[in-house]
Amino acid sequence: MKDIDILNSAGKMDKMRLLNILMQLRKCCNHPYLFDGAEPGPPYTTDTHLVTNSGKMVALDKLLSKLKEQGSRVLVFSQMTRLLDILEDYCMWRGYEYCRLDGQTPHEEREEAIDTFNAPNSRKFVFMLSTRAGGLGINLATADVVILYDSDWNPQVDLQAMDRAHRIGQKKAVRVFRLITDNTVEERIVERAEIKLRLDSIVIQQGRLIDQQSNKLAKDEMLQMIRHGATHVFASKDSELTDEDITTILERGEKKTAEMNERLQKMGESSLRNFTMDTEMSLYNFEGEDYRGKQKLSMMEWIEPPKRERKANYAVDAYFREALRVSEPKIPKAPRPPKQPNIQDFQFFPPRLFELLEKEILYYRKTIGYKVPRNPDLPNAAQVQKEEQRKIDESAPLSAEEAEEKERLLTQGFTNWNKRDFNQFIKANEKYGRDDIDDIAREVEGKSPEEVIEYSAVFWERCNELQDIERIMAQIERGEARIQRRISIKKALDVKIARYKAPFHQLRIQYGTNKGKNYTEEEDRFLICMLHKMGFDKENVYEELRQCVRNAPQFRFDWFIKSRTAMELQRRCNTLISLIEKENMEIEEKEKAEKKKRGTKTPASQKRKAESATENSGKKDAKKAKT
């Protein structure tokens, strides 16, 4: 009903909105379950509600049961593939064996379904097809009944659908049934399709040309189609479907078809060119100008939206939960004195101020005779009640010195900081870290750097006084962890790139078992080098990296890397960064092990040298003694 305003307006009409209304009305005519949320569930069941909630399904159910008794085989065509899903559920519920073919059906399955349906003594009773996916060359001559569940704007499409059964080899008389919902837009769609066929027979088949512009659907015609039957629908009080015999339904359909054909035969070529069956509407045409659009809004047929009806809630669990709920009287809030200052915890007033305010509140409750109620949720409710009442009874008013002190303390907090400023300060700490006070000051709007520095010092000194300090600290620490992660990634890239003189040509990545099959080593090398060159922590770096990949001459014929999105490049770079960090860690551990090994060897060698020197000096002394 959101687009009903365009139907009752006298101004300009949006053609796309009218087309949208037409499509929604066609879905209403076919089945209400084409709208999301209309089908009851979950859990979704296959039951009689598939039939009883749609007038067309009621007629189709009666028609198929009669055709089944007669031994006929049926082709069912629909414009909407979602309706074929509903028909599939219906056939499974009724036990009808069926085949299905639509635009999503693979070629092999199409051929298999056609061969299965056309096989001798086939048990398939129904073949469901989307009208436009039937295509040329499909032979379903073993079927003798065609049911057009809904009609196409182009009559040739429906004729082609009928031709699926009118094939060489057909031995039975083919019957065609078209399902049309009475007093709806479908009547006008079928009328327009029949007019096109008549116009084809008297104009195109005679070799004459027709203006293509007149073949298009104008806004006024769409509006007339939408408004057709609206009064009957909104005025209808009976929402139940009449249980008529299928023979009665078919007889009434034949009668209406004969009436429409009779009207078509009376029309001339000029009326057919105008695509209208209302011959009296030509009275509004004068000197080549159509005065229908100039009628006042008061002359239009007003479509009144239906009144909303409140439905009873039949949720059993909710009903008993409400019925069995024991209503407990809520404990009234303790009164507070009027005109008390509004103090927030993030404004960091001196603790002495809260003591004075508490004393003032207790004395106010004493003056009004307030009695503390007992809280039954507390284990020692009586003791707590007695203690709170004692504080009130023993309270005294503020002295002159205390009142003066209170006024002085009210000026010592951050009174010019509101909740918005505080949230900006917290988000800035999360974004830049608690130590980057310059960037934090730039993020807090309306505050000078000196004010932010002063507030930051007090915040980190008294942050434990905040009510939700755990959540705030967790938020800031998550941001600082992301900052440290970016620093470690940048360091890893710097170390990796520094190992090569020409990294764009020499860089190698130790893949291990994570090589993958899609990206080549040349592509990975380019991604890492460009990511390091542009800056890993730069904003929108992967969008720029995607443009660099597309502009790189070495990838001008590499469709895979050029077709990657920024998100896919980011995922690949994250994988490569993990490999580089692992490689750097292994190299670092290896270097530490070698240094440790060299450190243990040095003292032993020095000891051996000292021992050999001592031994040589001893030998020299012995030689001198001999001489």
Q: Could you write a compact summary of the structure shown?
A:
The chain is mainly α and 627 residues long. It is built from 24 helices and 7 strands. Helices cover 54% and strands 4% of the residues.
Number of helices: 24
Strand content: under 5%
| Radius of gyration, in angstroms, nearest whole number | 43 Å
Overall number of structural domains: 4
Widest sheet, order of strands: 2-3-1-4-5
Q: At CATH's second level, what is the architecture of the largest domain? A: 3-Layer(aba) Sandwich
Shape, per Cα inertia axes:
extended
* Overall strand count: 7
Q: Please summarize the sheet with the most strands.
A: 5 strands, parallel
- The N- and C-terminal alpha carbons lie at a distance of 128 Å
CATH superfamily of the largest domain: P-loop containing nucleotide triphosphate hydrolases
Oligomeric state of this protein: single chain
| Poorly predicted ranges | 296-300
The CATH class of the largest domain is identified as Alpha Beta
Helix content: 40-55%
CATH topology of the largest domain: Rossmann fold
Mean pLDDT: 76
Judged by helices, strands and strand pairing, the structural class is mainly alpha
Main location: nucleus
Domain SANT: 412-464
Keywords: Chromatin regulator, Hydrolase, Nucleus, Phosphoprotein, Repeat
Domain Helicase C-terminal: 59-210
Describe this structure in words.
The protein has helices at residues 15-30, 49-52, 55-70, 81-94, 107-118, 155-162, 185-202, 219-227, 230-235, 246-266, 269-273, 316-323, 351-367, 381-393, 400-409, 419-432, 437-443, 449-462, 469-498, 503-506, 521-534, 541-551, 559-562, 566-626, and strands at residues 74-78, 98-101, 126-130, 145-148, 175-178, 285-286, 289-290. Mean pLDDT is 76; it is low at 296-300. The chain has 627 residues and is mainly α. The strands form two sheets. It has a five-stranded parallel sheet with strand order 2-3-1-4-5, with helices on both faces. A two-stranded antiparallel sheet has the order 6-7. The relative contact order is 0.04. α6 links the parallel β4 (145-148) and β5 (175-178). One of its GO terms (biological process) is nucleosome organization. One of its GO terms (molecular function) is ATP hydrolysis activity.
